[in-house]
Amino acid sequence: VEVLKTKAEVKSLRSVFYKSNKTLGFVPTMGALHNGHVSLIEKAKLSSDCVGVSIFVNPTQFNNSIDFEKYPKTLEEDLKKLQNAGVDFVFIPEVDEIYSLKSNISLDFGHLDKTLEGAFRPGHFNGVGTVVAKLLNIVKPDLAFFGQKDLQQLSIIKCLVNDLSFDVKIIEVPTLREKDGLAMSSRNLRLLPEEREQATVLFRALEYAKNELLAGENWLKVKENAVRLIENQPLARLEYFELIHPTSFTTLDALENLEPAAICTAAYLGEIRLIDNIYVKTGESL
Ligand code: PAF
């Protein structure tokens, strides 16, 4: 795997791909790669001639400085995984390479960045939108791959790409889970053993709620039970558990006939904040 550090290096390799008429799939990451990332890469390889990955722990999307400082860094293992996965290049810029000048614009995604993650992590989606826009402009991929685990991020990115006419197709890849259901996430590396054990409650609560809803139970009742399930874990501190429309992120009180729906949740396990979601019904828009 070719390691690129500067925008200039990416530009020159990109032009080689253009000249040989090769399509480029791109997987942006913050490193600490796990099998979820590998599944994004595999999907990218199936649909593009060449695949590039970026590893950049983007400071502007962290609303919590401790979370930023302690974000897991496993560069050597990451490079081995990328090599094994057969990635063509990895772009690993320094902060100054991406943010050489102070950014003056800020992005407003309307309701999408004010609810759920947006409400609990002020400024987070402005940081995500800014860095994704920069990376797409630097790498100029044909396709870019993002995980369903960050469902609201995915919607934000689709909105960014659509509203600002980026010439890239955004592909969603399903969440990969550990055997006990915990959604794969780089932050799982920071869970202490007891927190790790109790973290499985998120997926259990999501599955419970999905099944009850599909069986016709009332959402408010289902939500109450699911919230209780999570709060019964001594190390869990729930932030939200909501039924939403998976692209507009409007909250729903019930499943609506032809509309897709997902349940999204966020909770701290000890000091570590985890998110997860599950589709209840998928619609044609997905
Ligand atoms: O999902 C992530 O890892 C990050 O939010 C992303 C999309 C790489 C932007 O920094």
Let me know the average pLDDT: 96
Shape: globular
Bound ligands, each once: pantoate
Major sheet summary line: 6 strands, parallel
SS strand fraction: 15-25%
- The class by helix and strand makeup works out as alpha/beta
Give the helix tally: 11
Q: List SSEs in N-to-C order.
A: EHEHEHHEHHHEHEHHHEEE
Task: Give Rg in angstroms.
Answer: 19 Å
Ranges where pLDDT stays below 50 over 5 or more residues in a row are none
Helix content: 25-40%
> Numbering strands along the chain, what is their spatial order in the largest sheet?
1-4-3-2-5-6
Number of strands: 9
End-to-end separation in angstroms reads 33 Å
How would you summarize what this structure contains?
The protein has eleven helices and nine strands. With 286 residues, the protein is α/β, with parallel strands linked by helices.
Which key terms come to mind for this protein?
286 residues; alpha/beta; three-stranded antiparallel beta sheet; 20% strand; binds pantoate
Your description of this structure?
Helices cover 39% and strands 20% of the residues. The protein is globular and about 60 Å long. The protein contains eleven helices and nine strands. The mean pLDDT is 96. Bound molecules: pantoate. Pantoate binds next to strand 2 and helix 7.
